[in-house]
Amino acid sequence: MDNLIWIFISAMLVNNFVLAYFLGLCPFLGVSGRLETSFRLGLATTFVLLITALCSWFLNAYVLIHAPYLRLISFIVVIASTVQFIEMAIKKLSPALFKALGIFLPLITTNCAILGLAIFATNRGYGFAEGMVFALGAGAGFTLAMVLMAGLREETEIIDMPVLVRGTAMNLIIAGILSMAFMGFAGLFSST
Amino acid sequence: MAINIKDPSAVQEMMKGLWRDNPVFVQVLGMCPMLAVTNSAINALAMGLATLFVLVGSSALVSAFKNLIPKQVRISLYIVIIATFVTVIDYTLLALFPAIHKELGAFIPLIVANCMILGRQEAFAAKHTVGFAVMDAIGMSAGFLIALFALGSVREILGNGSLFGIDLFGAGFEPWVIMILPPGGFITLGLILLFFNWVTERKTRFLEQVVAAEQAKG
């Protein structure tokens, strides 16, 4: 149990997917303009991460022990079709939720955090429970980073700033400072 | 699919990736491998070359089969083609350069999720002949390589006081450790983009002045 808690905290704070591993930067820089949408995208991504963790565990346990070189190809195909499938299911079961997530769902396929999660979990040899907790932590960390970034960006819109600095350049520098702040969490592990 | 190398449009396709349509500085694509592996110049170079191989290979294959690929499933097919090339380069690096493979770790498989590669298939390779697609792929990945190398060498020089592992400043230099850690990546890329914006703006302003002067004369 202790182990699972550490995996969660590590994936969420210390080794935050966005700010320490640079995974999922496309939505992080692209969709983080509004607080509300960032939060929703974070939740949708967490959901897909959990499903991916489940699928990749299944693939690793039953299929890929026979053909390890197919790992990457099968992961990406599974992720792409899972997202497609979830999209259809949500559309059928809950049109309201589908409308709320709408454009963000297909975008999730090209989010490297999803593939990264499957690969990291495999490389570290996580079992079923560990993999699921890892996915939950990664999703929570992604949501946290998105919400923090969106909050900061909403503030910067009010500030009087040179036109040259606005846009991606400034967002990257803000992300750098956020990342520096998150490095402080590394102290959590220094004693263990 | 012979293509005359002196053909100006083919060379143009290649050159546009270097500066005008540079995938990183102008289109801001492929950020994830860009930042993660650029803590030293040699890693950046290896990542750039691996991306070059994957992009050229998959562009050639996609444009060769463009008439056979059904529209509805094209994206999935592109991804499978890209994943195949990435698997090839992954195992090749593991066999030939195990040290570099270990350094880059999970980021070699993550080339699959580099949106620049999928973007080139969709935007260019699927609509052009093999020759043009390969030229475009070479140009784009050269632009990507330059960007990676610029970021990687700046971070290694400041963060480690060395370039390609060779000490530059001697013992008196205090390395900026932050530069080789994740925040350094974000901040360096932000500053490089800022520089790029500045150069582009100076250029447009200069051109405007030239046009205004011409008009005043004529």
TrEMBL record, chain A:
<protein>
    <recommendedName>
        <fullName>Ion-translocating oxidoreductase complex subunit A</fullName>
        <ecNumber>7.-.-.-</ecNumber>
    </recommendedName>
</protein>
<comment type="function">
    <text>Part of a membrane-bound complex that couples electron transfer with translocation of ions across the membrane.</text>
</comment>
<keyword id="KW-0472">Membrane</keyword>
<feature type="transmembrane region" description="Helical">
    <location>
        <begin position="69"/>
        <end position="90"/>
    </location>
</feature>
<comment type="similarity">
    <text>Belongs to the NqrDE/RnfAE family.</text>
</comment>
<keyword id="KW-1278">Translocase</keyword>
<dbReference type="GO" id="GO:0005886">
    <property type="term" value="C:plasma membrane"/>
</dbReference>
<keyword id="KW-0249">Electron transport</keyword>
<keyword id="KW-0997">Cell inner membrane</keyword>
<feature type="transmembrane region" description="Helical">
    <location>
        <begin position="6"/>
        <end position="29"/>
    </location>
</feature>
<dbReference type="Pfam" id="PF02508">
    <property type="entry name" value="Rnf-Nqr"/>
</dbReference>
<comment type="subunit">
    <text>The complex is composed of six subunits: RnfA, RnfB, RnfC, RnfD, RnfE and RnfG.</text>
</comment>
<keyword id="KW-1003">Cell membrane</keyword>
<dbReference type="GO" id="GO:0012505">
    <property type="term" value="C:endomembrane system"/>
</dbReference>
<dbReference type="InterPro" id="IPR011293">
    <property type="entry name" value="Ion_transpt_RnfA/RsxA"/>
</dbReference>
<feature type="transmembrane region" description="Helical">
    <location>
        <begin position="97"/>
        <end position="120"/>
    </location>
</feature>
<keyword id="KW-1133">Transmembrane helix</keyword>
<feature type="transmembrane region" description="Helical">
    <location>
        <begin position="132"/>
        <end position="152"/>
    </location>
</feature>
<dbReference type="InterPro" id="IPR050133">
    <property type="entry name" value="NqrDE/RnfAE_oxidrdctase"/>
</dbReference>
<feature type="transmembrane region" description="Helical">
    <location>
        <begin position="41"/>
        <end position="63"/>
    </location>
</feature>
<keyword id="KW-0812">Transmembrane</keyword>
<feature type="transmembrane region" description="Helical">
    <location>
        <begin position="164"/>
        <end position="189"/>
    </location>
</feature>
TrEMBL record, chain B:
<dbReference type="GO" id="GO:0005886">
    <property type="term" value="C:plasma membrane"/>
</dbReference>
<comment type="function">
    <text>Part of a membrane-bound complex that couples electron transfer with translocation of ions across the membrane.</text>
</comment>
<feature type="transmembrane region" description="Helical">
    <location>
        <begin position="77"/>
        <end position="98"/>
    </location>
</feature>
<keyword id="KW-0997">Cell inner membrane</keyword>
<dbReference type="GO" id="GO:0022900">
    <property type="term" value="P:electron transport chain"/>
</dbReference>
<keyword id="KW-1278">Translocase</keyword>
<comment type="similarity">
    <text>Belongs to the NqrDE/RnfAE family.</text>
</comment>
<dbReference type="InterPro" id="IPR003667">
    <property type="entry name" value="NqrDE/RnfAE"/>
</dbReference>
<keyword id="KW-0249">Electron transport</keyword>
<feature type="transmembrane region" description="Helical">
    <location>
        <begin position="175"/>
        <end position="199"/>
    </location>
</feature>
<keyword id="KW-1003">Cell membrane</keyword>
<comment type="subunit">
    <text>The complex is composed of six subunits: RnfA, RnfB, RnfC, RnfD, RnfE and RnfG.</text>
</comment>
<feature type="transmembrane region" description="Helical">
    <location>
        <begin position="132"/>
        <end position="155"/>
    </location>
</feature>
<keyword id="KW-0472">Membrane</keyword>
<keyword id="KW-0813">Transport</keyword>
<dbReference type="Pfam" id="PF02508">
    <property type="entry name" value="Rnf-Nqr"/>
</dbReference>
<dbReference type="GO" id="GO:0012505">
    <property type="term" value="C:endomembrane system"/>
</dbReference>
<keyword id="KW-1133">Transmembrane helix</keyword>
<protein>
    <recommendedName>
        <fullName>Ion-translocating oxidoreductase complex subunit E</fullName>
        <ecNumber>7.-.-.-</ecNumber>
    </recommendedName>
</protein>
<feature type="transmembrane region" description="Helical">
    <location>
        <begin position="41"/>
        <end position="65"/>
    </location>
</feature>
<dbReference type="InterPro" id="IPR010968">
    <property type="entry name" value="RnfE"/>
</dbReference>
<keyword id="KW-0812">Transmembrane</keyword>
